[in-house]
Design goal:
Largest sheet: none
Number of helices: 6
Distance between the termini: 62 Å
Strand content: under 5%
Shape: elongated
Radius of gyration: 24 Å
Helix content: 55-70%
Number of strands: 0
Order of helices and strands: HHHHHH
Length: about 190
């Protein structure tokens, strides 16, 4: 690889890293701000999920920038010889750079979302298990947890059935039924 090859990759990685850092700095989506202002949104987990995703974006962004710096250092230490990028014309280099940046952003964004979803799921599971979260007592939050975890509501779901599916999905033990507790067999609605 030549100096130009290292520079090419370093610039692409630095741009991708800065993209992720800038995306993580973005506050709230305008739609979410309006929903909260109009009192439409009452859930509590969206901000937590967003902070987990933004934390992962910042880590990914800094990682890309650091790797770009290392590539730039490696490129300046290489003796000058012809590389892949040297044989391309300027318009082709620009298009290749843009294509590489778009490809890296797409792949890394997908991986970051998968990583964030797994982190969020682990975090919810830890907190719910540690504190023995009473799903039946706060159905708004329970439905939000179910939605974020991808557990669909069935038309014939009762509170107990839906809560049982969430507990099974999170691999959380079911609480011991107490005789003094009234069983909730009403529709989830």
């Amino acid at each position: 690889m030549s100096d130009a090859d290292y520079d090419f990759l370093a610039l692409a990685l630095a741009t991708v890293g800065l993209f992720f850092i800038c995306c993580a700095v973005q506050m709230k989506k305008p739609k979410h701000i309006l929903e909260e202002a109009f009192g439409i949104y009452r859930g509590r987990l969206r901000d937590l999920k967003s902070s987990v995703f933004k934390r992962n974006q910042i880590i990914l962004g800094y990682l890309c920038v650091v790797v770009a710096i290392v590539l730039e250092i490696c490129g300046s230490a290489q003796p000058g010889h012809v590389g892949l990028v040297d044989g391309l014309g300027l318009p082709v280099q620009v298009l290749a750079q843009l294509g590489l940046i778009a490809l890296m952003i797409g792949v890394l964004n997908y991986l970051s979302r998968a990583w964030s979803k797994a982190s969020f799921r682990r975090l919810v599971q830890e907190v719910v298990t540690e504190y023995q979260w009473p799903f039946e007592e706060n159905m708004v939050l329970t439905k939000e947890i179910g939605k974020l975890l991808g557990i669909p509501q069935q038309p014939d779901d009762t509170v107990d059935l839906y809560v049982a599916r969430i507990r099974n999905n999170l691999k959380i033990p079911h609480p011991i039924k107490r005789p003094d507790r009234v069983r909730r067999a009403s529709q989830l609605g």
